[in-house]
C-alpha cells in the first residue's frame, strides 16, 4: 500500500506561481510512475505531468513550458513547480502513483487562480 500526501495548493493571482509537493510512503520511484493529475470544475481528471520509472518526464501540452516536475529521492517526494498560472489551471490537483498492478491517489489539493 502506497500513501500519498499532497501539499502546497492555494489561491494565487493569474501569472503567479505555486509549488505542489507529494510525499510518498516508502521508496516508490523505481516501482511506480509518479506524477500529477487535475480535475477542474465540471471536467474530467486529466494528466498534468508524470515521471516514468525510467525517470522520463511527460507533460500535458497545456502546461509545457510553465510547469516543471522535480523529485527528491531521499525524501520520496515529487514536486510540481507551476509558473505563469492561468485561470484555466484552477483545479484540484492529485498526486498519483501507478504501475500495471496498482494505482494510488492522494487526497488532492485545491489550486485556485484568480484574476
Beta strand count: 11
The mean pLDDT is 95
Helix content: under 10%
The largest sheet is: 7 strands, mixed
Beta content: over 45%
Number of contiguous helices: 0
Distance between the termini: 40 Å
Short synopsis of the structure:
The chain is mainly β. It has no helices and 11 strands.
Q: How would you describe the overall organization of this protein?
A:
The protein has 115 residues and is mainly β. The chain is 0% helix and 52% strand. It contains no helices and eleven strands. Strands 2, 4, 5, 6, 9, 10 and 11 form a seven-stranded mixed sheet that branches. It has a four-stranded antiparallel sheet with strand order 1-3-8-7, with no helix packed on it. The radius of gyration is 13 Å and the shape is globular. The mean pLDDT is 95.
Features of this protein?
115 residues; mainly beta; 7-stranded mixed beta sheet; 4-stranded antiparallel beta sheet; 11 strands; 0% helix; globular
How do the strands and helices of this protein lay out in sequence?
Elements: E1 4-7, E2 10-13, E3 18-24, E4 33-39, E5 46-51, E6 57-59, E7 67-72, E8 77-82, E9 91-98, E10 103-105, E11 109-114
Parallel strand pairs: 2-11
Antiparallel strand pairs: 1-3, 3-8, 4-5, 4-9, 5-6, 7-8, 9-10, 9-11
